[in-house]
Write a structure and sequence with these properties.
Blueprint lengths: L2 H9 L3 E6 L2 H15 L4 E4 L3 H11 L1 H12 L5 E6 L5 H12 L3 E6 L6 H5 L2 E4 L5 H19 L2
Parallel strand pairs: 1-2, 1-3, 3-4, 4-5
Length: 152
């Protein structure tokens, strides 16, 4: 899929949820701010450390993001799931929930081409690179290009 495939998905939603771990979580927090401020979407990210530890303690890390989505995510919302490996169980569980809730799913992955998360997304941006820094950097660039194209 391409940028042209992703634009109609973004344009068709009012709320966007960004999920990732580690460096990808930082990208998600950044994109939550930019997509809200610049493109005027209602945006959310699971990036507050108190929130993360609360949900991880009560539901287990692998279910933490999914349980948070259950409270906030509605049919027609968009989940942007970012995972370098595409194999993070917490991201996969959240993505599965978003699909069950009749949401839209765009994934950004790296490493192995046929990873679990990349097979789930309506649209997947995949980088066949096995280096976290490079994959994360390109994921951020891709999300910025989409944003910049949306507001032109």
């Amino acid at each position: 899929k391409s940028l042209e495939d992703a634009l109609p998905v973004f344009k068709s939603v009012k709320r966007i949820f960004f999920l990732g771990n580690g460096g990808s979580n930082s990208i998600c927090s950044h994109m939550m701010e930019d997509y809200g401020k610049i493109a005027r979407f209602r945006t959310y990210a699971f990036s507050d450390s108190s929130l993360i530890t609360c949900y991880a303690n009560d539901y287990g890390f692998e279910n933490s993001m999914m349980e948070w989505l259950k409270l906030h995510f509605d049919s027609g919302d968009l989940l942007v799931a970012v995972s370098s490996s595409g194999e993070s169980k917490n991201i996969i569980n959240a993505a599965a929930y978003a699909l069950e809730a009749n949401g839209k799913l765009i994934t950004l992955t790296g490493f192995a081409e046929n990873n679990t998360l990349s097979r789930m997304g309506e649209i997947n941006f995949h980088l066949p690179i096995k280096n976290y820094g490079i994959v994360e950097s390109f994921h951020q660039v891709i999300l910025h290009v989409i944003l910049d194209t949306l507001v032109v």
